[in-house]
Amino acid sequence: MNILVVGEVKNGELRHTSLEILTAARSIAEGGDNTVAACVVGSGLDGAAGELAAHGVDVLVADDASYETYSSEGYTEALVKLAQSKSFDVVLFADTSFGKDLAPAVATQLEAALATDVVQIKTAEGSALHVVHPMYSGKVNAEFEMSADRTKVLTVRPHTFAAATKNGSGGNVEKVASSVEKAIRAVVKEVVSTSTGMVELTDADVVVSGGRSLKSEDNFKLMYDLAEVLGGAVGASRAAVDAGYQPHSSQVGQTGKVVNPSLYFACGISGAIQHLVGMRTAKVIVAINKDANAPIFQNADYGIVGDLFEVVPILTEECKALKQG
Ligand SMILES: Cc1cc2nc3c(=O)[nH]c(=O)nc-3n(C[C@H](O)[C@H](O)[C@H](O)COP(=O)(O)OP(=O)(O)OC[C@H]3O[C@@H](n4cnc5c(N)ncnc54)[C@H](O)[C@@H]3O)c2cc1C
Fold first, then answer.
1. Cβ(268) to ligand 1 under 6 A?
2. Which atom of ligand 1 is nearest to the CA of 269?
3. 232 CB near ligand 1 (under 6 Å)
4. For residue 221, what pLDDT is reported?
5. Looking at residue 193, what is its pLDDT?
6. Which of 87, 109, 141, 313 has a 20 to 30 A CA-CA distance from 287?
7. Percent of the chain scored above 90 by pLDDT?
8. Beta bridge partners of 41
9. Residue 195 has what pLDDT?
10. How much is the mean pLDDT over the chain?
11. Is 213 near ligand 1, meaning CB less than 6 Å away?
12. Could you give the C-alpha distances from 101 to 62, 98, 155, in angstroms and in order?
């Protein structure tokens, strides 16, 4: 199989999830007569393409000023051409907003099989793939066979695979002539960044989330202080978002983002199923709740029964001290 990893570039930099799907691609390729290549689409891609190539993979680069502003149609067109140019059998995206937007469109145009939010790639037999995808709010894991006779497009949940590390032999960077050719029907006029200057929620290895119990936007400072010490991001329950304490971009759960960090703090969050869907695959979950019977404790690895307004500042100070010492 020829496997194509679709790299994602934000503000000129390669997103970490791109290196995770490179590992996923290599796990598919292992042990068979398979090849792995990567691609990036955008404008001003030298740094990102070089970063991918430094991880030992050949990179196809569609770099043109017409891709400076993201558009689903323009990027889909470019990726379909790239996938067809070398008859790729498998196209891998990270399950980020970028991947979620593009993968179904690319799969449709390639008449490919599509599996989204994949958390496990079980086997690669011949040109067929067996993949696992959580369903019904994470209550069951469904295993799909993606048949050999079709191109396969996958989005892989962030933090499912470890990021590829640099190896000695760099890959080649090949620029391909590409530009937006058709009239784009939906044009992005303005991008308003909601960035807090912290790591992206879906990229973060540590997430500190707060719930309705935070009572105000100002009190979320407690979450930001702990997240900052741990180099993490801040998330929120829907109740906290609906109350206006945090923007919707911070919402974790069924109607928010799915995060998969190494460490997740649920502070004053009851543990409703719609919240759990967004964080239950975190490697370690720490719950802080003053109600010992709160459902979140059933899903937590560590539980602290207590008032978050007392517990979180102590945790922050202790973490600071550990880092300094
Ligand atoms: C279709 C649908 C989609 C949804 N999507 C989402 C989603 O994407 N994400 C999501 O989060 N929710 C979602 N919800 C809402 C979800 O059902 C819950 O209502 C929500 O998660 C509750 O948020 P919470 O835990 O912050 O608030 P609450 O349920 O009110 O829980 C607050 C918790 O804080 C504890 N607490 C109170 N004060 C303190 C304190 N001082 N210290 C420590 N603990 C304290 C309480 O004991 C309680 O357990 C959805 C609901 C529906 C119907």
1. yes
2. 25
3. no
4. 98
5. 73
6. 141
7. 81
8. 62
9. 66
10. 94
11. yes
12. 18, 5, 10
**Which structure tokens are listed for 162?**
């470890």
The span from the CA of 261 to the CA of 201, in Å, is: 9
Residue pointed to by tokens 């993968």: 103
pLDDT beyond 80 at 202: yes
Q: What percent of the chain has pLDDT over 70?
A: 99
CA distance 70 to 40: 13
Atom of ligand 1 nearest to the CA of 288: 43
Q: What is the pTM of this model?
A: 0.83
Task: Taking residues 251-256, report their average pLDDT.
Answer: 94
- Using CA atoms, how far apart are residues 250 and 221, in angstroms rounded to an integer? 14
Cβ contacts of residue 247 below 8 Å, gap of 6+?
Answer: 194, 241
- Evaluate: CB of 222 within 6 angstroms of ligand 1: no
Report residue 243 as tokens: 């109350």
> Which residues, in sequence order, are CB contacts of 39 under 8 Å at separation 6+?
4, 5, 6, 7, 59, 60, 61, 62, 79, 82
Residue 85: half-sphere exposure toward Cβ, Cα within 13 Å: 18
Lowest pLDDT segment from 156-160, 161-165, 178-182: 178-182
Q: In this structure, what token pair is assigned to residue 150?
A: 């079709």
Q: Which ligand 1 atom lies nearest to the CA of residue 309?
A: 41
CA 295–ligand 1 middle distance (angstroms): 10
Characterize 197-217 residue by residue with b for buried, 16 or more Cβ atoms within 10 angstroms of its Cβ, and e for exposed. eebbbbbbbbbbbbbbbbeee
Beta bridge partners of 176: none
Euclidean distance between CA atoms 300 and 265, whole angstroms: 9
The ligand 1 atom nearest the CA atom of 256: 8
Edge-to-edge order in the sheet of strand 128-135: 120-125, 128-135, 140-146
Mean pLDDT of the region 268-296? 96
What is residue 122's predicted lDDT score, i.e. its pLDDT? 86
